[in-house]
Amino acid sequence: MTVSEQDANRKPEANSRKDATREPDSSLSAIELELNRLHRSIRLTIQDYLRNFEGMQYPSLEENQRVVSTIQRLLERYGLRVRCPECGNPSILRVSSRKTAKRGVFVFDHNINGKRTFHGGKNVFPKMQLVEKPGRRLTKPQS
What we know:
5 strands, 25% strand
């Protein structure tokens, strides 16, 4: 078979110029919908798993911090945050030391009106509702 015969029998490629003129927005919309569906499934799966921790407390501040750090790495990997139960903002779960709580307290770390804020303060793992990580804040260009 000659090269010209092979070209004549070849199926059109998906990324050919002719295909590129066909409604690219619809194919992008389709993949975006599918990825959103998959991301939602991941979020709900992780959230369901985290329910196992609610009301728990490890024997030391260091162990509580280690577990929360592991959870935060997982959430960061999938672009997620924990919703603050007090104000509803996306937040980072942390364990802070307190003189009155030897094992530490669980706090929700986030910004409100540009100011770092901590809500919470219970000594057991809180209920964790997951939300999308907010986009990066744009800084004003310096003049």
